[in-house]
Amino acid sequence: MTVKVYSTPTCPWCKKVKAFLKENNVKFTDVDVSSDEKASAEMIKKSGQMGVPVIDVNGTILVGFDEAKLKEALKI
Amino acid sequence: METSSKNYDFLIIGAGGTGLAAAMYSARLGLKTLVLGKSQGSELPIGGVITTTNLVENYPGFIKLTGTELAEKIEKHARSYDLVTIKEEKAEKVSKKGKCFEVKTEKEVYVAKSILFATGTKWKKLDVPGSKEFENKGVNYCALCDGPLFKNKIVGLVGGSDSAAKDALVLAEHAKKVYIIYRGEKIHPEPINLKRVEENKKIEVINNTNVVEIKGEQFVNEVVLDKEYKKSKTLKLDGLFVAIGHIFLSSLAKDFGVKTNKAGEIITDKICATNVPGIFAAGDVSDGAFKQLITGVADGCTAAHSAYEYIGNVGGEDC
Hints:
The complex is a heterodimer. Chain A has three helices and four strands, in the order E-H-E-H-E-E-H. Chain A is an alpha+beta fold.
């Protein structure tokens, strides 16, 4: 399973998502869209919007931190 | 009171700075305390609204730190007391149970001798054509979260308060141009932030003007103003941030019979008591005149002490 988190360092919900993934022992790649313009464009293209966090779970795109939906996507 | 895991002396609804400070103090006073920490509508995590502030410079003891850092310290302080339990559950209903109160969440029913509403506020949304359609597609509410996505872009910021000015300053760290669009005569942040705005060459203030429509294709590309600015009623923007105030999250309290004022703030006295004995309110949701983390924290501690006195005097018996 590939999990990618598009985040900014100052976003409280991004911290929440990453803490949740760590608590559940889910390996993920953290991409800081504030310093990586290519990643920022990729996130906007994938999610069709400009808010963080965006989580890509094997191609399933989730916007924001919705624990139930994230659990469903991660099958945990 | 029986020592069931569902029974508490003091139940705090809301885990922003106010609720967490109240929990820290009630534990010091020996009260078994539960904080229900899931957002009551603010869509913010534990720590509350201060987590969306970039720099906090008005909290004694810390010359400068981020809102998230400060929130984490306050949360850690509350959690350092064994008598404090924080659960990420949302309170759905409050009712009376004998001399005590019952709070129902999506998972459980808790009983407490006293309750504190520290439910805070949520951002008021801009209500003009295009504002819903383009939400998160250029229309954003959290400058701190989403500002970095507007690197070298042109953005607008609707509002004139201190929060609006601080948001504009955050945006100016990323965007190449920031327009503050304010309906009143002159923006009114704290003088220190007004000076920063005035000195920032990227920020331009448009007073006496409203955004009346937001336009774009997939994302925002312009807004329509209700009066001309530089000979045009349209302003080319890549994004529009909104900081036009807050809605008080008091409906749960109101449903239980707690009195609120016309604005929706819970009416409290000097000891943070409401019209219902045993029910207290503090922080942004209450009718205090000056709303900052520092005042919310102080109110939270006052409310904890008031609950302690109330329980000692009135509600000391079993529920």
